[in-house]
Design goal:
Number of strands: 12
CATH architecture: Alpha-Beta Barrel
Distance between the termini: 33 Å
Number of helices: 10
Structural class: alpha/beta
Radius of gyration: 18 Å
Largest sheet: 8 strands, parallel, barrel
Number of domains: 1
Oligomer: single chain
Strand order of the largest sheet: 1-2-3-4-5-6-7-11
């Protein structure tokens, strides 16, 4: 029996990067060994490095290099202009869309268009997944707070035609709010934030009174301060028949992360050794607590 071989995916950029940085990043990613690339703004509609047409143009260029391209939607919609952009993405006619809220699921279901369920959709049971599969879901991304035990239970009930994707590397997207925490940090109103997120290409780290890095503020999004790294759990991910492994883009070092996962999937590197090398470069360490069914910021069976 051949070993289950997941695909590698590059998630959407969760931060506000200047247009030049984004263009350079995706130029490099086009030559990387990822199979799937997610594109688009999922956090804040005020981040306008690219407009919708430019995202679609970039999607076309990446598709020409052989990548499967998926367009990602906002997780929190608050204005009519954001709904218009959502409709445009859902009606693009060429690329699969990752729905990050139920409004996107509804629009895509009405068009009978296959869709990906992003981390913004709370799939906590096999029953929920089967229901959403009936609305057109062809792949789901496991919510980052779920454990391997919960995943195993859902996998046992998963429809055969639905793929499973797991967030395996990056700062975990935990929550969204109507309030912009970055603007508030600078005593600015949300509507006049002066695009301060540009100053934090990997978010703004929040520490406890004891000085422990706890969370990262990313506009209206809250992330983990620690970086999730499930590379040492590669054998478990394979045993659970996970189809896609998602790597979340980082401001620096994304190529090294992709190469490490790709090499381990090919059997060219040991996952624990590769994870140790990646973790050494992390400013606040790695975490895998949620995967282990424990508090998310913990590193269980720490790779040292």
């Amino acid at each position: 029996m051949t070993e289950h071989q997941p695909k590698l995916a590059l998630g959407p950029v969760l931060y506000y990067w200047p247009k030049e940085k984004l263009l350079d990043f995706y130029e490099r990613m086009s030559a990387s060994p990822v199979d799937i690339v997610y594109l688009g703004e999922t956090v804040c509609s005020k981040r306008r490095a690219f407009n919708t047409e430019e995202w679609l143009e970039l999607a076309g260029r990446l598709a020409e290099t052989g990548k499967e391209v998926v367009l990602s939607t906002l997780a929190l919609l608050e204005a009519e202009s954001e709904l218009k952009t959502l409709r445009r993405l859902c009606e693009n006619g060429r690329f699969t869309v990752e729905a990050n809220d139920m409004g996107a699921v509804r629009l895509l279901s009405e068009r009978k268009t296959p869709l990906v369920l992003g981390t913004g959709i709370n799939v906590y049971s096999g029953r929920t997944l089967r229901f959403l599969a009936g609305l057109g879901a062809k792949r789901w991304v496991m919510p980052v707070e779920l454990s391997r035990t919960t995943l195993a239970a859902i996998q046992a009930e998963r429809p055969d035609r639905v793929e499973t994707e797991v967030f395996v590397y990056g700062r975990l997207p935990l929550a969204y709010s109507a309030r912009c925490f970055t603007a508030r940090h600078h005593n600015l109103p949300k509507d006049d934030c002066r695009y301060r997120c540009l100053d934090y290409p990997e978010g703004l780290t929040l520490k406890t009174r004891e000085g422990q890095a706890f969370l990262a503020i990313n506009g209206v999004q809250t992330q983990s301060a620690q970086t999730c790294n499930l590379l040492p759990e590669l054998s478990e991910l394979r045993e659970l028949k996970v189809d896609v492994l998602r790597i979340s883009p980082q401001a620096d070092g994304t190529e090294a992360v992709i190469e490490a996962f790709a090499a381990c999937l090919r059997g060219k590197r040991d996952p624990v050794e590769a994870a140790r090398a990646l973790n050494a470069a992390l400013p606040y360490g790695a975490c895998n607590g949620y995967w282990q069914g424990q508090p998310g910021l913990r590193q269980v069976a720490e790779v040292v």
